[in-house]
What does this fold into?
Amino acid sequence: MRRLKTSFLFALLYLLVVIRPVSADESALRIVTSFTILEDLVRELGGEHVSVVNLVPRNSDAHMYRPKPSDSVAISNADLVVFNGLGFEGWIDRLIKDTRKEDKQLVASTGVSILTNGQEIDPHAWQSFGNIRIYVQNISGKLISLNPLYADNLEARKDEYLEKINQLEHQLQSKIANTPIDKRIIVTSHDAFGYLGRELDIKFLAPIVLSLDAEASALDVASVIDRIRELHITGLFIENISNTRLLKIIAAETDATIGGRLYSDALSETDGPAATYLEMMRHNIGSLIRAFGAHQTD
Ligand SMILES: [Zn+2]
It folds into this structure.
């Protein structure tokens, strides 16, 4: 009887220790991301090796976000906190400090080619294929260093994702090449596309400078209206995170029409047109190219 019991115990131990050494869930890195674009990148690059809690939801504005108590709890439990940096998430330093996670943070934008707008750094560096490759390298490198057992798989995921970026960029670059550079002018409600503009030679005029917490003055709006008339601009775009009041005023005062919605600082809902980073880039740039097309046939 005693022997039976012992062998039963051994069998149980065997089951616990040998058969299930570490299940995917147990070995998955617990990662907190600050906003949806990073959440998507971490999920793409980490696959089953990560479990992600994201803070600022889809279609929401990270500039103005107010952290919830549950955010501190998530960060306390995290193996890694990934955020954009460049002053985008002004609220996150405090959270990381309070939870003593300074040694568990990754600034995803480290090493990107920065744009400034006056005195300020433009934080929207992810709106560029060149920069997002650096985000991908930073995130993937960190995941591999934290989980070297799965390095091969994580490397393969990274290569596959970089290949998708290359294909999409190539496809969109050859489409936009049909529009002469001096016709690539767009008006948006929030100046979040400086990096995209630099990469694709598109000029973005925005009535609000850089951050949503600044209100556009009547003078700013008037000068944008003048320029739209002067340059015969037909493409006005609203963004998923900002209000449409200003652009509607501008559209009413000019010949331009609102050409659709661009996604700048957050992904759309999962059934929307910008559910992932790559879909966001495809949707945004595709919409801009269509607006240029409207211009050309005028
Ligand atoms: Zn923004």
Q: What stands out?
A: DSSP finds eleven helices and ten strands in the chain. The CA atoms of residues 112 and 134 lie 6 Å apart. The pocket of zinc ion is lined by residues 63, 124, 190, 192, 264-265 (CB under 6 Å).
